[in-house]
Amino acid sequence: MKFVDVPDSKRIERQPDNRNVIFSDGKMTQNDVVIKQIELLQYKIKIDHKLGEYSIITALVDTDHGQIEILYDEGYRGDDALNDSANILVQNLGLSGLILRSLISLKNELERIEK
């Protein structure tokens, strides 16, 4: 089951323009949830002749409880926005925060379905 926790998710109801796998060995466990894969997805929304590309970058976290896609970054971030975001995520210890945020969102979605 896949959940999308992105404001105005209609903007990303298509295949992403680019993707970057951050983690894929499926051996990470957090709060009794096995994380199989984490990837960043880039959706190019528009191009401004002065500001460049406007992108929505989401994180797709695949777990043994389902998938959750959450907003990671958004805005005019340049032509290499996806790689820049991946580097920031990995080099600045942002991965643990992303995982915790994703699991909280996934848990909330699963609880909502159970009700």
Helix/strand order:
EEEEEEHH
What do the pLDDT scores average to?
A: 92
Q: Per the principal axes of the C-alpha atoms, what is the gross shape?
A: globular
The number of domains: 1
User: Approximately how much helix is present in the residues?
Assistant: 25-40%
Compute the CA-based radius of gyration.
14 Å
How many strands appear in the DSSP assignment? 6
Could you give a short account of the major beta sheet?
6 strands, mixed
Number of helices: 2
Distance linking N and C termini: 17 Å
Instruction: Specify the structural class.
Output: alpha+beta
Work out the strand percent.
Answer: over 45%
- Uncertain residue ranges: none
Please write out the topology:
Blueprint: E1 2-5, E2 18-23, E3 28-30, E4 33-48, E5 52-63, E6 66-76, H1 81-91, H2 94-114
Parallel strand pairs: 1-6
Antiparallel strand pairs: 2-4, 3-4, 4-5, 5-6
Overview in brief:
The protein has 115 residues and is an alpha+beta fold. Helices cover 28% and strands 45% of the residues. Strands 1, 2, 3, 4, 5 and 6 form a 6-stranded mixed β-sheet that branches.
Features:
2 helices; 115 residues; alpha+beta; 6-stranded mixed β-sheet; 28% helix; globular
Characterise this structure:
This protein has 115 residues and is α+β, with helices and mostly antiparallel strands. It has one domain (2-114). The chain has helices at residues 81-91, 94-114; strands spanning 2-5, 18-23, 28-30, 33-48, 52-63, 66-76. Strands 1, 2, 3, 4, 5 and 6 form a six-stranded mixed beta sheet that branches. A hairpin with a 2-residue loop joins strand 5 and strand 6 (66-76). It starts with a strand and ends with a helix. The mean pLDDT is 92.
